[in-house]
Design goal:
alpha/beta
Length: about 170
């Protein structure tokens, strides 16, 4: 009796946009590897690297925050294939990586995985869903050879949010 063939990995159509200088930023192949690690279904994803002004404007327009945030995720179509954007604010990521004693690359990997999970409906609106999402991120990042992004951190106050998420529609 022949074994069933292994399921095919999800297909990924990836676009990368650099609204800031691309030097020292992850390249397309690296972003593809990080996204694929977290992807469970076919998707068309755009990763956009932005500066502080654009990050602040997007956060104000879609999350009512008057500051640039590290990552915003926009889901445009959650049918097959999934379609959405992951927007990374480079100056915020650099500052956070420095403050948290992480490499910039490891912090980018974390937030790309985090954004990819959001694209697929994961959320951290409650303590229970936040803990589940953190465990999943930690496992996926370990598979990528990255350390636990939540290790050696100060306790998060009750109700505090994880990296940012925005959506064109309410969830």
């Amino acid at each position: 009796m022949a074994a069933e063939p292994a399921p095919l990995p999800p297909r990924l159509a990836l676009a990368v946009q650099y609204a800031v200088a691309a030097e020292q930023l992850p390249v397309r192949a690296t972003l593809r590897r990080w996204i694929r690690a977290a992807l469970t279904r076919d998707a068309a994803v755009t990763v956009r690297f932005v500066g502080t002004a654009e990050g602040r404007r997007l956060n104000a327009d879609f999350r009512a925050g008057d500051h640039a945030t590290n990552v915003l995720t926009f889901v445009y179509d959650d049918s097959m294939p999934l379609s959405g954007d992951i927007v990374l604010c480079v100056p915020v990521l650099r500052r956070e990586a420095r403050e948290q004693g992480k490499t910039f690359t490891d912090h980018c990997a974390h937030l790309v995985v985090h954004g990819t999970l959001h694209l697929q409906g994961h959320d951290h609106g409650t303590a229970r869903t936040a803990a589940a999402m953190e465990r999943l991120e930690t496992r996926l990042l370990a598979q990528l050879g990255k350390r636990d992004p939540y290790a050696e951190r100060a306790p998060r106050p009750a109700g505090a949010r994880l990296p940012g998420r925005a959506s064109r529609r309410s969830r």
